[in-house]
Amino acid sequence: MELINNAGKPPAGHYSPAVSSNGLIFLSGILPARPGAVDFADEVGQALNSCKEVLAQAQCTLDDVVQCTAYIVGVENWPEFNRVYMEAFGRHKPARTVVPVPQLHHGCLVELQLVAARRP
């Protein structure tokens, strides 16, 4: 297992931002950089940008993502999540699960967990 850190942004807890094993990159849950800064869509965009940063440390992009699990506060935010997610991923459609939850750490409205595959 290879540990992958996000340069300049060490984790606050006992975990790695991502690990690589057998050609797969597993991103830990990624929260928005500034929860509550603007609105739900902004938080989703921030979380996706942070995911891109971690993926880049593993020489990957969103196009390498094969699976996404999204935890969102409030099922009513699902359409807005889907809109921002579609803008970020474009025609690429990894497997995805969206889980509405009552709350997340630090008052965040979204948390993303990704799996990517390194290209040979």
Automatic annotation (TrEMBL):
Gene Ontology cellular-component terms listed: cytosol
CDD domains in alphabetical order: YjgF_YER057c_UK114_family
Superkingdom to which the source organism belongs: Bacteria
GO terms of molecular function: deaminase activity
Pfam families: Ribonuc_L-PSP
Protein name: Enamine deaminase RidA, house cleaning of reactive enamine intermediates, YjgF/YER057c/UK114 family
Protein species of origin: Pollutimonas bauzanensis
